[in-house]
Amino acid sequence: MANFFTDNSALKFQLSHPLMQKIIALRENNFSEKDKFDYAPQNFEDAIDNYNRVLEIIGEICGDIIAPNAEEVDKQGPTLVNNRAIYAPGTQQNYEALRQAGLYGMALPRKYGGLHFSMVPFVISAEIVSRADASFANIWGLQDCAETLVEFASEEIKEKFVHRVCKGETCSMDLTEPDAGSDLQAVMLKATFNEQENQWYLNGVKRFITNGDAHIKLVLARSEKGTTDGRGLSYFVVDNKFDDKIKVRRLENKLGIKGSPTCELVFNNVPAQLVGTQRMGLIKYVMSLMNGARLGTGAQGVGVSQAAYNEALTYARDRRQFGKEIIEFPAVFEMLAMIKAKLDASRAILYETTRFVDISKSYEAIERERKLEDDEKTEYKEYQRFTDAFTPMLKMFACEYANQNAYDCIQIHGGSGFMKDYPCERLYRDARILTIYEGTSQLQVVAAIRHITTGTYLKRIRQYEMMTINPEFESIRKCLIEQTAVFEKSVEKVVEAKNTEYLDFMARRLVEIAGHLIMSYLLIIDATRDEQFAHSALIYANYAQSEIEKHAAFLEKFDIYSLEIYKTK
Fold first, then answer.
1. Residue whose C-alpha is closest to residue 217's, from 161, 258, 178
2. Which of 166, 437, 508, 553 has the fewest CB atoms nearer than 10 Å to its CB?
């Protein structure tokens, strides 16, 4: 029997991070619920034990049910019957297995039936599910939509919907439309308020909606007449009662993640409840939701990278050419080493970001109950700033690396990898969407660049620079310090030009340099705690150095007037 948690020591390692003591203490409010709920932990050790037990169950379901179903789910996909999206049989089996195990609502409060776990084990579970089947992660992971209700909705709405998520009902976030993809300010689905009935109604079309026929739907809609920008949008929760009010007009025929129904929806006078206050839909609530979604997509990318590495390694050991295993050829073992280094690097930034999210979210929850002390407020602001900075960087790198690793996995398989006899071609197709949905890699750069110019990344890099590491990594640290100076010089040059177009053009290179520095530090810090990461730390540091030098050379030679060369004539 396979278990996708216990067979990967890199996951259990995340539960032993020094910050977990603080994370659990904050999350559990010093274990204030230990006498209120019989499954609430009594102390830190009890909490970690709970995390391990639940993750072992999820790991077993992923290894024994979800992963074996993945190929058939990919072939069959969902079907459209009477304007309803019906999961493939394998997807239904996956869903039922996790629902019956009581594993929905992992991070939701116990008062609504959730497990109230911190984000770290929830993200571990998202990675495990993604490794088993990236398409099913789009159904499992959307339970995180309920976090938005917990944070911003009225108690009436929470009581109505959050309990249901904890019992296994599915969610969707209905944002994009035919003419509003990345530009959500252009959303035009109409929300009108009937004063006599004291009821909101939604009318219009949504497109590219992941798990679009979910039980509970969070919908961005235009509530203010005469508006055309984000200030006219509000956020609503809809109970999809499977009647004729919401119709699935079309299931998209996709390149990958075929098990997850991506729907075009028609809303016909659908009753809805307002979440929070009017006009704050995009500005506040969707921004919060998208940060959570990008964390989940980062986990999805790491899960796909893990699956690609496993497939590539197994094939390279089994396949013999010219009298020996192909893993013995330098061209192959170099690719395998790079897949593993990128996997470990993306996992390192995934859980670093998750820890930032955990602490900042816990302070948010505490602030709803009482006023924060001055030192708490200071720490909350710092972790919130790091959350805002690291989330887009994580999403970009983890998803780009998933694509690169799936590509190299096929390459290691050679001609066999191009055939449907091996899972690697499905991994390659599934990976492609990761750099597109929940904000393209280009949009992640837009979100990240202000943290370049304001010094957020540099501040954290300096903090990593001061951390204790094993003597064997001192040469890497020395190199990273030199590269940080190059980074500072590059940022200074671009900022001093005071040209927005020039900054935007160079943004990707600057963000990538910062990311390579951060992930290199994270790997040597992890390798100091556990030698299993030492190999990847050394390889990634070499790779990062070459990438940083490449970008720095381009930045040094390129001037603002050269932009004209790149513009389409």
1. 161
2. 553
